[in-house]
Predict the structure.
Amino acid sequence: MKLNRKKLTLKKGKTFKFKVTLTPINSRDRITYVTSNKKVVKVYRNGRIKALKKGKAKITVISGKKKFVCKITVK
């Protein structure tokens, strides 16, 4: 699995969608997105995030036994 970002800075109110590449391509592992701070960043099931207010948060992307973290800063 690969994630297209490891760090990201967003302005309040803006959105971003993660692009996750599963390996092997025919993998059927479910992808789950979790935020460390729901007040700063809202995360949706499809990988889209929305910056809610200034601060920092981490988005953890989980697929099978693999985990990747993206650090988010909202300005």
Observations:
- The mean pLDDT is 93.
- The domain at 2-74 is CATH 2.60.40.1080 (Immunoglobulin-like).
